[in-house]
Each structure stands twice: as C-alpha cells, then as structure tokens.
Specification:
Blueprint lengths: L6 H4 L2 H4 L10 E5 L2 E2 L4 E2 L10 E4 L6 E8 L13 E10 L8 E4 L10 E10 L20 H7 L7 E8 L8
Parallel strand pairs: 3-9
Antiparallel strand pairs: 1-2, 1-4, 5-6, 5-8, 6-7, 8-9
Length: about 170
C-alpha cells in the first residue's frame, strides 16, 4: 500500500520554516502562466515580479502572506535563514494578494550558490491590521516566520507552497 508523503515535509519546509499544520484553505501561486507546485523549479528571471497568489476563504476573512528563503546565502551555510522576500497583509478571502497591503516590498529570488527553497506561507488574521499597528521588520536577513506569526498572533499557517530556484548561467559571448 502506497503512503502519501507530504512534499512540505520532504522539502524540510515543515520543521525549518513552519510547524506541522493542517491546511484549511486553498492557495495557488503562479508566475505568469507557470503554476507553482511544491518543489517545482522556477528560474529567477521568471520571478522578477510578484507571483499571482490566489486564496479561497470568505470575503470577510483577512490573510497575511509571507515569502522567505530559508537557504540564504547558501543551502550548505544558511547563516541568513530566513531571508525575507515579501509580506502582504489584509488580503481579503476569495481574492488574490494584489488586493492586500504590501508591508514589505517584493524581492524576487536571487540565489547565488546552490538550489534555494522559496516558501509562501499564508496565515489567517484575527482582525485587520491598521496603519501603524505593524512595524516592518528592520532587515530582510534572519527573519523568522514563526516568531513573526507568534508576535502578531497569527497562529498556524492556513496554506503553504514552496518552489526551488537556482542561479541561472550567464550568457557567454565568444
């Protein structure tokens, strides 16, 4: 009998970025016409702009989306774990991340060495974050998704997806 192995466990997202959780809503992400599935490879040049992240849920519910790289600066020495790439808050359910408020501007993947994981984590908010209630993190390196969620009382994630990216070879002219 075949057993299902969660790709978030295999990809070490559960454990290194988030704790074990039960997904409670649907979240899809895409760069252009390329859908993101757990563990897929996305070229950095294809991810220069924020992905389209659609979430289910009721219109009255609000969500926070966080994107990090737990492998910065390199998978063998992740001394900047987690590197923060994006935070969007107050996303209404049943819409997409563009309907929320960008707290930390999107920064696309820029892996320098090795294959990096990029993790999109969605949390349900207890209430709307009003101006001034949230302070953006001081720095992008060494961000901690769990600590951010705990501080803002977000609880466990409602959905998570991750993709891989690696440095693209430079065009060589001869």
């Amino acid at each position: 009998m075949a057993r299902f192995v969660d790709p978030l466990v295999v990809g070490r997202v559960i454990g290194e970025v988030v704790d074990l959780f039960v997904p409670s809503i649907s979240m899809t992400a895409a760069y252009g016409d390329r859908d993101i599935s757990n563990g897929c490879l996305v070229r950095p040049s294809a991810a220069d702009y924020p992905p389209l992240v659609r979430i289910s849920g009721r219109r009255n519910d609000l969500y926070t989306l966080i994107m990090t790289d737990p492998d910065a600066p390199s998978p063998s020495d992740p001394s900047m774990r987690e590197f923060l790439h994006w935070i969007v808050v107050n996303i209404p359910g049943g819409t997409d991340a563009s309907k929320g408020e960008e707290m930390v501007e999107y920064m696309g993947p820029r892996p320098t060495v090795g294959i990096h994981r990029y993790v999109l984590v969605l949390y349900e908010q207890k209430a709307r974050f009003v101006d001034g209630a949230l302070m953006p993190p001081a720095d992008r390196p060494n961000f901690n998704t769990r600590a951010f969620a705990a501080y803002h009382q977000l609880g466990l994630p409602t959905a998570v997806v991750h993709f891989n990216s690696q440095r693209e070879p430079a065009n060589r002219r001869r």
